[in-house]
Write a structure and sequence with these properties.
The strands form 5 sheets. The chain has a 10-stranded mixed β-sheet with strand order 1-4-7-10-13-16-19-21-22-23. Strands 3-6-9-12-15-18 form a 6-stranded parallel β-sheet, with no helix packed on it. A 4-stranded parallel β-sheet has the order 2-5-8-11, with no helix packed on it. The protein contains 1 helix and 26 strands. With about 230 residues, the protein is mainly β. Strand 21 (about 150-155) and strand 22 form a beta hairpin. The chain has one domain: Hexapeptide repeat proteins (UDP N-Acetylglucosamine Acyltransferase, domain 1, 3 Solenoid), CATH 2.160.10.10.
């Protein structure tokens, strides 16, 4: 499979782009970034130097991915998402006489987006955190802390409000009574089963085949922006 790069895209030196990937108009990918196979990089998105992106990742338009971000396989990053990597940024030195370097240094903090996760449109992602496997971040959310696997997180700052399946279908909404809950949860859309232990989600069995798409939208899907 060949790589499709739009004529207006700017690709710097030592960038690796895997087979079957598409890079659309006015995308800017900085030096030594790595893009996996069968990825889609939407128009006017920016990917900083040394960023690592896995296979089959969808990045919509106007996404800003800064240095020190790692994105694993199968992640969805919706339009207008912004990543950050500096907890206490300043433009200049304390005397205001010299610009600070924009290159990564000891203050540059990493962010890891684990496999299968979804980030909704217009979200802002902090740093020194992990977005867990198959987690879902609702549109417009501000993520300041790590999000566990399979959790749905929304708000300013983002908080976990429930859990979602591998297929994306919401399965359970948290309440105060469910903080210490232990129970088995089954996805009504694709049938996959999970065990919920004190809000930690454990897969009972891996998917045997691609999850079926579902129709309609639940309340939790509307909250997440999908």
């Amino acid at each position: 499979m060949s790589v499709m790069i739009h004529p207006t895209a700017l690709i710097e030196e030592n960038v690796k782009i895997g087979a079957g990937s598409s890079v659309w108009d006015n995308v800017h990918i900085r030096r030594s970034a790595s893009i996996g196979e069968e990825c889609i990089i939407g128009e006017k998105s920016y990917i900083a130097y040394d960023v690592k992106i896995g296979n089959r990742v969808k990045i919509n338009a106007f996404v800003y991915i800064c240095a020190a971000v790692t994105i694993e396989d199968g992640v969805m990053i919706s339009a207008g998402t912004i990543f950050t990597n500096d907890r206490f940024p300043r433009a200049t030195t304390s005397d205001l006489k010299r610009l600070r370097s924009s290159a990564p240094d000891e203050h540059t903090l990493p962010t890891l987006v684990r496999e299968g996760a979804t980030i909704g449109a217009g979200a802002t992602i902090g740093n020194d955190l992990v977005i867990g496997r198959f987690a879902m971040v609702g549109m417009g959310s501000l993520v300041t802390k790590s999000i566990p696997d399979f959790h749905l997180a929304i708000g300013h700052p983002a908080k976990s409000v429930g859990i979602v399946c591998r297929c994306g279908f919401p399965m359970l909404r948290f309440s105060e009574a469910s903080i210490d809950m232990e129970q088995e949860v089954r996805c009504n859309a694709c049938g996959l089963r999970y065990e919920l232990r004190n809000r930690s989600v454990v897969e009972i069995e891996p998917p045997a085949a691609p999850a079926q798409e579902y129709g309609g939208r639940s309340e939790m899907e509307r909250l997440a922006g999908y």
